[in-house]
Amino acid sequence: MSESDANKDLLEALNSVNEVKIGDVVKGEVLAIDDAKQVIVGIEGAGVEGVVPFKELSLKPDQEVSDDVTIGDVIDLVVISRIGSDKEGGSYLLSQRRLEARKIWDDIEKKFEAGETITAPVTQVVKGGLVVDAGVRGFIPASMVDDRFVEDLNQYKNQELELKIIEIEPSENRLILSHKEIVKAAREAKKAETLAKLVVGDVVEGKVARLTNFGAFVDLGGVDGLVHVSEISYERVNKPSDVLKVGETVKVKVLSIDTERDRISLSIKQTLPQPWDNITEKVAEGDVLEGTVKRLTSFGAFVEVFPGVEGLVHISQISHKHIATPNEVLTSSEKIKVKVLNVHADEHRLALSIKALEEKPSAAGEAKKEASSEEKVDLPDESTGFTLGDLVSDLKDEDHQD
């Protein structure tokens, strides 16, 4: 071979050697694995070697180098930096892990631009939010976890969540995600579906979502309805939290639906047996019952003898002695015994007496009382379902019994 041909071959060989630059993606043939678990590779087309440190390999936490890499393998790598100098021969620091991360960032960026979502498992609960593994580290601020306040974020640990990409900056390894948008969209879809099915008068099941002083909000499936405190029970309820718990499943009747204002009125008590149903099987004229004084008026006392069932003790039936007002001898919430004078089931009325259970004063004492004053029957000052005729009739019935 002539000298000119030799020089020509040398020039072609030199020209065929590619220059290696920081950030380049190269192929490396695995030449060896040293004692420090570093992978030594020959960079194809460059005629130089590179080193892949153990931490720069794409290995799972429990994997060894030999589980994923063997001598002779050709793997894709990214050039991180130059090692040594040209005089020393030089080599390059390479990474498999960062190259895969770059591919993941590229994929996430494309999905962000297309408005697509990603799914990722929650790996950590940290102050201020959740950390997820999307191939790269992602963060969900606490305010973007749900469309409602979440007191304990630990419930999301290890859950796979669908996420909307809010902000992405690969150069800073910054990926901000939101689950709130997904929850909100799903809730709106479920809400529309539920509203389309609901009909006034329906009896459905729901879960108690929130309790307030004025009632309970029940989740019917994407939409909440309100059970006013007066519609919780036939018995008087001071606070909803006295009888209901958040998360409890309840049956409710749909009273009204206002789609324009997204308001649904519900009732729990109207799904329960009516207090006055079969009342004649529970009580009869002449029975003696224990009850609770619920209300005092100028004309008598209303006494609850069964849950949701009240009867009237007219002022004339409170005591054998003359009293001007019921609160002279009775107090609200007091437990007393009463005798049933009349049962008017259809009209939801019970006529009761306290004095019928007390010993009647002697005739001399009664005559003296009649001489001093006449017993008065006051007209009712509120609508009770009782008429003056009913009250006088009940009074005469009792006098006849005495």
* Class per helix and strand makeup: alpha+beta
Question: Spatial order of the strands in the main sheet?
Answer: 1-2-3-5-4
- Largest sheet, if any? 5 strands, mixed, barrel
Radius of gyration, CA atoms, in whole angstroms = 43 Å
Strand content: 35-45%
Multimeric state of these chains?
A: single chain
Classify the fold: give the CATH topology of the largest domain. OB fold (Dihydrolipoamide Acetyltransferase, E2P)
Properties at a glance:
alpha+beta; 7 helices; 402 residues; OB fold (Dihydrolipoamide Acetyltransferase, E2P); 5-stranded antiparallel sheet; disordered C terminus; single chain
Give an account of the 3D structure.
β14 and β15 form a beta hairpin. The chain has seven helices and 20 strands. The protein has helices spanning about 5-15, 65-70, 95-115, 180-195, 280, 365-370, 390-400, and strands spanning about 25-35, 40-45, 50, 75-85, 90-95, 115-125, 130-135, 135-140, 160-170, 175-180, 205-210, 215-220, 225-230, 250-260, 265, 290-295, 300-305, 310-315, 335-345, 350-355. It has about 400 residues and is an alpha+beta fold. It has four domains: about 20-100, Nucleic acid-binding proteins (OB fold (Dihydrolipoamide Acetyltransferase, E2P), Beta Barrel), CATH 2.40.50.140; about 115-185, Nucleic acid-binding proteins (OB fold (Dihydrolipoamide Acetyltransferase, E2P), Beta Barrel); about 200-270, OB fold (Dihydrolipoamide Acetyltransferase, E2P) (Beta Barrel); about 275-355, OB fold (Dihydrolipoamide Acetyltransferase, E2P) (Beta Barrel). The chain has a five-stranded mixed beta barrel. A five-stranded antiparallel sheet has the order 8-7-6-9-10. It starts with a helix and ends with a helix. Residues about 10-15, about 370-385 and about 390-400 have low confidence and may be disordered. About 20% of the residues are buried.
